[in-house]
Write a structure and sequence with these properties.
This is Sigma-70. With 331 residues, the protein is mostly helical. It has three domains: 101 residues, no CATH class; 157 residues, RNA Polymerase Primary Sigma Factor (Orthogonal Bundle), CATH 1.10.601; 57 residues, no CATH class. The chain is 63% helix and 4% strand. It has 15 helices and four strands. The chain has a two-stranded parallel sheet. The chain has a two-stranded antiparallel sheet with strand order 3-4. α1 packs across α4, α10 runs antiparallel to α11 and α13 crosses α14.
Amino acid sequence: MEQNPQSQLKLLVTKGKEQGYLTYAEVNDHLPEDIVDSDQIEDIIQMINDMGIQVMEEAPDADDLMLAENIADEDAAEAAVQVLSSVESEIGRTTDPVRMYMREMGTVELLTREGEIDIAKRIEDGINQVQCSVAEYPEAITYLLEQYDRVEAEEARLSDIITGFVDPNAEEDLAPTATNVGSELSSEDLNDDDEEEDEDDDSEDDNSIDPELARQKFSELREQYEKTRVAIKTHGRSHAKAAEEILNLSEVFKQFRLVPKQFDYLVNNMRQMMDRVRTQERLIMKLCVEQSKMPKKNFITLFTGNETNTTWFEAALAMAKPWGREAKRRT
C-alpha cells in the first residue's frame, strides 16, 4: 500500500537524521508536486539544514561526514513533518522544470582536476593540429614572417603577433592558452577589441617576451620555410623529401603562441582559400559531368588525386569518347 505524504516525509527526515545528510535528489523525490516555487524549496531545504541534516549534491565519503547521532530524534522528526506536509499532495516525480533541475543537481558528476587536465590536453592537441594544417599553407608562414619584419622595423609590437613560445622539450603543457583558439570573429570585431586594449598592458606584454628568443625563433622559422620551399620546388610536394621538410616546418611553427587576431586571420584566410578551391572543383565537375555528359564515375576516377595537374584531363581525352571531345571544346 502506498504511503501517505506525511509518512514519506517522516521517513525522509528519519533517514536524514540517521545518515547525517540528504541529497537533493532524495529531498525532491519526497516533496509534494505542487511545491514548485524556488523560494519555497529553498525554505524547506533550510529547515532540513536547521535540524542538523546537511542537504548535499551527492553522498559524501564516510570520512567527510560530520559526527551525528545515529538514533533519530522522534520529536524533531514529527515537528519537521508537520512543517513539510503543510502543503499536502501526491508524492512522486514531477515534470516541473524547477524540481527536475534540483533532482538532477546531485546526479551530475563534478569535473575533477584530472578531467580538467584531460580537456586541456585535448584542446592543446586540437590547436596543434590546426597549426600543423596552417603551416602547410605557404601564405601563412609568409604572412607571419612579414609581421615580424614590421616588428624589426619598429612598425609593430611583438605582442601584436605572439604571446610567447612553447618549449618543444617540455614533457607536458597542461593548460593551453585561450589565445590560440580561433574565434572566427570578423576582422572588424578583432580591430574593435584591439582599440579597447590598454597601451600600458601592451608594454608589459612586450616586456614579458624575450626579444632575443623571439629573434632566434623567427630566424629558425624563416630558415625552415626556405628549406621547405626549395624542396617543394625541386622535388614536388608529394616527394618524400618535401614531406619531410613540411613536417619539420610544422614542428617549428607549433612552438609559436599566436595572439587571437593573428591566429584567426591565418585560420580564416586558409578557410577562404579552401572555399575558393571547392568552388573551382564544382565548376570543373559541372563542365565535365553536366555540360559534356561525362559519366560521374569516370570523372571521380580521373579527377581524384590529380586535382593540381592536368594529367586527368589528358587521360580523359585519350579515351576518345564523345564527352571527351565535348569537354575539350568547352575548355
